[in-house]
Amino acid sequence: MTAEATIPASAAGASSEPLLRTDTLRVHFPITEGILFERRVGAVRAVDGVSLEVRRGETLGLVGESGCGKSTFARAVIRLVDATEGSIHFDGTDVTRLTGDPLRRMRRRMQMIFQDPYASLNPRMTIGSMLAEPLRVHGLAKGEQAMKRARELIEIVGLPRNALNRYPHEFSGGQRQRAGIARALAVQPEFIAADEAVSALDVSIQAQIVNLLSQLQSEFNLTYLFIAHDLSVVRHISDRIAVMYLGEVVELSPSRELYERPLHPYTVALVSAVPIPDPKVESKRKRMILRGDVPSPANPPSGCRFHTRCWLRRELGDPERCTVETPELRQLAPEHGVACHFAEELAGNERRDQLVTAAAAHSNVRDTDADEPAKPTGASAAPASDPDSFFPGDVSHH
Amino acid sequence: MSRTAPDPEALLSVRDLEVTFGSGDRVVHAVNGISYDLAPGETLGIVGESGCGKSVSSLAIMRLLPKPAARVRSGSVILEGQDLLDLSDEEMRRIRGDQMAMIFQDPMTSLNPVLPIERQLTEVLETHRKLKRSGAVDRAVELLELVGIPAAKNRLRDYPHQFSGGMRQRVMIAIALACDPQLLIADEPTTALDVTIQAQILELMRTAVTERGTALILITHDLGVVAGMAQRINVMYAGHIVERATTDELYGRPRHPYTVGLLRSIPRLDEGRGELVPIQGQPPDLSRQIIGCPFADRCFNVLDRCREEMPPLEQAPSAADEHLVACWNPAEGERLVPSGFESELAS
Ligand SMILES: Nc1ncnc2c1ncn2[C@@H]1O[C@H](COP(=O)(O)OP(=O)(O)O)[C@@H](O)[C@H]1O
Ligand SMILES: Nc1ncnc2c1ncn2[C@@H]1O[C@H](COP(=O)(O)OP(=O)(O)O)[C@@H](O)[C@H]1O
Ligand code: SF4
Ligand SMILES: [Mg+2]
Ligand SMILES: [Mg+2]
After folding, report:
1. A256 to chain B nearest CA, in Å?
2. Which parts of chain A are beta strand (E)?
3. Is B184 strand, coil or helix?
4. What is the pLDDT of residues A236-267, one digit of tens each?
5. B197 at the A interface (CB within 8 A)?
6. What is the model's pTM?
7. Are B37 and B215 in contact (CB under 8 A)?
8. CA atoms within 13 A on the CB side of A285
9. What is the distance in A from the centroid of ligand 2 to the CA of B85?
């Protein structure tokens, strides 16, 4: 495909203004009671004050346990769901409350790809008409010209030429995801939010799609918001990563730094929980196993929302500050923000270094004294002799 | 391996197991003559992409295949000297839940949604252990505490939906362990869970099987999960075991091009942004007849012979210990370092 057809005009002259910026964005879903007279009895605070920037041409990764608001954030940003409070700026324009034609024009520039492309592809439409449709809707091309563009698109995403006349159900999962990507690309967007787009795929296919996304990014100068629950994939593809917990961003950092020098105790726990496909590393690793489940976003804990599961707070003797004062996202290193009152304790914290993989991979430490870090794992792990240790130290006591 | 007699030391010996679905002109060859042994107390990982026969081969062992859709064409499944495929349904019911148990990705597939969890636990104990009601209840509380259900006593009357996903999986594990089975099969037990909860459940399973000497077959598509759990791993592809080795051997010196491909496809948390090397193409359609090696179309080492004759699962040349591979042209077994890793380390 030709370059001039695809490079969006606004991206050509790179500016320092981020492509996307949210300012204390909140998305609350009302919880109602009663049938005849619906009363509002509360709200799910799915996204609760998120200020993030996505820079032109970068990939911003978004991670966190399920229910922490990742999808809602992405949907709010591309205006599939309305913001309750706060603002969204896209390419310098406030798009928070756009409607009608201006919204439609803006939508062309931001697209989303989903975990299950099948749900977003019309089962009764051939791939060809599905690709031509948005071109027509946005007045970009029609008739033979649209079909020509559709042919280009399937080639770009690596689908066989005969795919144009076939239906979604005739494709494998990986091919369907390629079709979903082609559809998102059809309208030449500048920004793509990928919500768990590779999560349901087998690893060999996942790698194909991850590589395709990287290739498309450099070819078409795309900006990505990349959401996945697999931290390894997110690290692989992202320049910077934001970690969410109960609707808030608790840490924001360059990708590599986040995994090697995390400054939030939640990030440390997340990173230490990710299995590494290497028995040598696994047998030496230690884990910070978080207690219990994530609390409800309808009724988040006071102060720091993580305090009910925070191992650092416990290590510090339960300081009151954690339960009464909400920590702001503070810049502690260049490009590295963290929302924890005691994040300084983590910089250079030996325990942290043992828990994050980079350190674990290159050291030999084993530690069985504390109750949280799990015993060394792996084939060589000796059977525990202490009968109490059957009861793992990872249970919540609420 | 298929010709070798079952190992008398083994807890479980699977021989030439073949399972198909359907009949007439559309027969799906789900499991194509697999053989392996499992030692008492051993943890065996079974890995491979979706559709390669991990679940079907394990359901065959448990005699839980859907009838009449599935057909065991041939083979034997010997648990402690007894061929399970010869047993009546009644005899099988006595063994299941007692000597062997299985847990699934979605606990709701085996938990009864309209029964409080107390009943589901005591039922197993009353059936297999002939415990009286009160004794069974005490034991149920013990088991729930064992798997880390907080305030276990107060939760006996709760229904499965009142538990979170992680807690439900714990209840499943409690039921599976109730009668101290010698064999536990866990089919993707953590796939639906967050990584934090996965760590909890894996730790629980590891402790449980180590302390009780339970043999565990851990089925997963995640090469990270088994790396820290299993002593030995079977890699499956298109209904065949294509490689089998100790965990250290398999990751350290993978021989089958498919295993090599899998390991190169996965990004590692502790390594940099080097290029992922995907496996080209997709797994074959199991309803078509495959001649030769089922991986041939995607393989970087393919020879003419591969398209003519299925390679047998045999000891890899110059490998330490048991290291079986079904390949006419195995990889050398060099340690895999993804490209880009060295440069990042140096920077
Ligand atoms: N349309 C909706 N109505 C009510 N609650 C919702 C809706 N969408 C999401 N939620 C809730 O908002 C929270 C965040 O959900 P989501 O953004 O999907 O999280 P994630 O993508 O991180 O898993 C969850 O508690 C979820 O149940
Ligand atoms: N009930 C069924 N009817 C027909 N085919 C089935 C059925 N269950 C499984 N299969 C087929 O058997 C093969 C192996 O499936 P399975 O063991 O579930 O794979 P895995 O667990 O490795 O993902 C697949 O090709 C699948 O389509
Ligand atoms: S037998 Fe041949 S085609 Fe099959 S994996 Fe080995 S080299 Fe590749
Ligand atoms: Mg989501
Ligand atoms: Mg399965």
Report:
1. 8
2. 20-33, 39-54, 59-63, 85-90, 93-94, 110-113, 191-195, 223-227, 240-245, 248-254, 330-333, 336-338
3. strand
4. 999 999 999 999 999 999 999 999 999 999 99
5. yes
6. 0.89
7. no
8. 32
9. 20
